[in-house]
Specification:
2 domains; 312 residues; 11 strands; binds pantoate; 18% strand; three-stranded antiparallel beta sheet; alpha/beta; Rossmann fold
């Protein structure tokens, strides 16, 4: 596995790949790789001929200093996992390489997409930090295709808007959330859960399952549906920061689920804050609950993947 730390070295490497006709896939990560990341790298290895994994814990997207300080850093393991999953390069720049002294640029998507849900709770600066670093990574690597996990459905929407609004020549692919056997969505933050908190965290997929079950039984009223989730969480001693049912494209809050809707929630569990989501859709209403049963089973919301016009 080639580990690259500077933009100059990365560009030289990518030039070499391009000269040989490679199709380049980028999997942006903040490290602590888990099977969700592995699924993105594996998908990239199928679609691209060379996969670059970036590992950068981006300080600009953390509002909470303790979350940044406690974020797991496991570069050696990450390099081994990325290589085993099919990546050729780990791009792991320092903070100074990405944000040199005097750095002052910011790329932001303004408006409801970054102000709702996570934006309302973590502050829109969170997404400004994400769109800034994603733009920089796309400029540094210049990949043909970039991969994201659907666990952060709002991030996928924001990145798609970024790519559309700035005409960035890259295809954005979102892949389903990967879950533990008991339904908990994989997250780099899960390693910070104590065993008691880990047991309580399973209430999150159970809360989702309770909403899905009620929806399938014909309940369409949003306050009644979200109350199901809140009750399951309360039984486990958890209080959500939010349980929201919103338009899956605009994130506008819904009062009634009269079409496909995104169910999204954020729940503090011990020292971390976990997010999860699923799509409530009349089309899926008769199919088995995706994802909430079985290790490695996937689920959660995945938007259809439009090809960017620039890439044809
Ligand atoms: O999803 C993440 O891990 C991060 O938000 C990303 C996309 C790597 C940007 O820092």
């Amino acid at each position: 596995m080639l580990i690259i730390r500077t933009v100059a070295e990365l560009r030289a490497h990518v030039r070499g790949l391009r000269a040989k006709g490679h199709i380049i896939g980028l999997v942006p990560t903040m490290g602590a790789l888990h099977d969700g990341h592995v699924s993105l790298i594996a998908a990239s290895s199928l679609r691209a001929t060379s996969t670059i994994v970036s590992l950068f814990v981006n300080p600009r997207q953390f509002g909470d200093a303790s979350d940044l300080a406690g974020y797991p850093r496991t570069e050696e393991d990450d390099a081994a996992r990325a290589q085993a999953a099919g990546a050729a390069v780990l791009f792991a720049p320092s903070v100074g390489e990405v944000y040199p002294d005097g750095y002052s640029a910011e790329v932001r998507i303004s408006g409801p997409l970054t102000e709702r849900l996570e934006g309302a709770h973590r502050g829109p600066e969170h997404f400004h930090g994400v769109t800034t670093v994603v733009t920089k990574l796309l400029n540094m690597v210049a990949p043909d295709v970039v991969f994201f996990g659907a666990k952060d459905a709002q991030q996928v929407l924001v990145v798609r808007r970024l790519v559309r609004d700035l005409n960035l020549p890259v295809d954005v692919v979102a892949l389903p959330t990967v879950r533990e056997a008991d339904g908990l969505a994989l997250s780099s933050r899960n390693v910070r859960l104590s065993s008691a908190d880990r047991r309580r965290a399973v209430a999150i997929p159970r809360a989702i399952a309770a909403v899905v079950e009620a929806y399938r039984a014909g309940e369409l009223d949003v306050p009644a549906l979200t109350a199901r989730a809140t009750a399951v969480l309360a039984d486990a001693g958890l209080t959500a920061e939010y349980v929201a049912i919103a338009d899956p494209a605009t994130l506008e809050p819904r009062a009634v689920v009269d079409g496909p809707a995104l169910l999204a929630l954020a729940v503090p569990v011990g020292p971390v804050r976990l997010i999860d989501n699923t799509l409530l859709s009349p089309v899926l209403a008769d199919s088995p609950v995706p994802a909430l049963s079985g290790a490695g089973r996937t689920g959660g919301y995945v938007q259809q993947v439009p090809q960017s016009p620039e890439k044809g």
